[in-house]
Amino acid sequence: MAKCISNPNPQLPNRQQNTSTSHDSAELALSQSTIYRPLDRAKREIRICDLYPASQISAKLQCSLRIVPINAAGKFVAFSYVWGREAETDTLYIDTVEHRIKPNLAAGLRRFRARFRQDPRTRIRPISIWIDAICINQDSSEERNHQVPLMRSIFSRCEYAFSWLGEAGQDSDFAMDCIAKIASVRRPGDYEYYFVRRSIFETFCEGRPWVAIHNLLRREYWYRVWILQEFILPANLVIACGAKALPWKKFRDLQCLRGCADILECDARELRMEISHLDSETQDKTVTVFRTLWELVFILSRDKSDFKNYSIHGFTSLIHFTMSLQATDPRDKIYGILALCKGIDIRPDYSKTTQQVYTDLAMLLLSQNSNLLWYSGIHFGKNINRLANISYWPSWVPDWDYITRCFTAEAILPLRQLEREHVDGSGMSLSFKKLGFEHLQKFTALHIRGQIWQAIMNPVPADEWLKPHHLSATLQEMYAKFYPGTSLHYGLRKPMPQLVALFLTIIQSIGYSMPRMDPEEDLAAGFCVNTLVRIRNGINDGSEVTKSILELSLSALLQMFAEQFETCNTTFDSPEMYKDAYLAKEMECFRGRVFFKCTTGHFGIGPLGARDGDLICKLYGSDYPYVLRKVDSHFVLVGQCCVLGFIGDDELDTAQSVMLEIW
């Protein structure tokens, strides 16, 4: 995904929640045995739900189930929806048996049924649909294991998918009308996005349309991990909200609003200029609409042919696309995207724990030289005590559910380069040497060859380090000192001022991850301006600053960088122009990370869980170093880091390498 999607309401419905009494459970077990006759796996059988028409929308829901081989299912509609947190308070009558369903599904079925009421061809005959909550016995793990792998065929073969966003509310009817109107605007060519946006903003010059679309796109429906296959696989798709419905192609046409990535740079300054007449809250929501379209619609609009080459080597990239999408069952963070990947030896098994599922996946992908370790250790960031409780989770196994729930995906900045890699995974694989696994009593240990480099000293969370008193003290210590070593990535041929090295440390951590929208000279100018402002603020908050720092001028700072870059053209003539651009890059770099120094004088940026005495290690085959912590005779993986002069080295001294055991 381009930049990771954040859900404003991270509370998820509990798909497995059981709110029934023992009496109700007994009745449920009886009804389930009556409804769900066994399926023949050899024939790849599925159930189709035939929903009976009704003259009133409030009429009771009635249907029957029939078992058919998937190849002989005929025409049917696949139902896509949110399970919801509510208890099963509504009733669906399957033949003569009452079957409890959740209110959101019941509302969607009634609205879906009403679409056929005025069509004489379908008014009196049942409508064939496939719904996981009804067509799969959710109380049978064995049946779920069998049916989930068939969902690729189910959604590929359906006549169309019906995507139910929920009942109307928060101006959703108005939002649907606005989307239809936006879609009617002439489609732009490669260089016409600006003129289309201008035309749309002239039409929707008030705030209400953008707030309504914002609310519609922030519904929980859009943030489900299953949504990717449910949108990409069907030949046709209908989006329904309340009584309104639009074909998906109307939503796809919202891409004309996305424009180019640069309109969202630096807090969307260009976009805000176009909507400057709106109040600040509405501006924020409009910007959110554009960001959501950039992240969400772009991914969901991809053709299924884009995924036909996804093999095991591209599965890590596929996980990245869906990293911030949510799943009621954490195992579905993996199982929910299997339908889009071929050749990966993973079968849904709901008898396994989440830890087992994630560990098995990590072993498989690491064995195939995946860059999976980039995601490892992150789940220890906000609760570092978990590292002492090894039985809880192996540190080298990414906890995909934690990453989603805690929005830590945004801290995995270097991984954004995956969005520009080939879909088959080429160019993303690593070449780990002598990698193996050892199955211990409660977990699995990773054995991998690497070289310990140096120790971390005094890591400080970035948001704390950037406070004026902290930053001023750091700059005072750096001033007039030189940074040791060189960086192959930047081609540095001589020692440089530590202040310049600090800037390059920040920039190098984003350099691999996204295209630079601003030249280094521009960002350096912005860095100098902000540094000087922070030094002055540091004086105001009572911190001690030496005379040399007090007398430091903007021209003196710029001169350091002019000598380093050698080509600064006219950028440094008006450095204030670039302060916001630098702050935006800095925020991208530091989010969810710590600033640290090393015993050798180097400094870098590392994972939030790093602490004094942790070790920087090069794992052979990885472009980035990692932070490890020594525990008895083994290590735990804290996370990835960036160190100027260390990142970008092609290889280290193999004679000094050792086999590391990571728990």
Automatic annotation (TrEMBL):
<dbReference type="Pfam" id="PF06985">
    <property type="entry name" value="HET"/>
</dbReference>
<feature type="compositionally biased region" description="Low complexity">
    <location>
        <begin position="7"/>
        <end position="18"/>
    </location>
</feature>
<feature type="domain" description="Heterokaryon incompatibility">
    <location>
        <begin position="76"/>
        <end position="230"/>
    </location>
</feature>
<feature type="region of interest" description="Disordered">
    <location>
        <begin position="1"/>
        <end position="24"/>
    </location>
</feature>
<dbReference type="InterPro" id="IPR052895">
    <property type="entry name" value="HetReg/Transcr_Mod"/>
</dbReference>
<protein>
    <recommendedName>
        <fullName>Heterokaryon incompatibility domain-containing protein</fullName>
    </recommendedName>
</protein>
<dbReference type="InterPro" id="IPR010730">
    <property type="entry name" value="HET"/>
</dbReference>
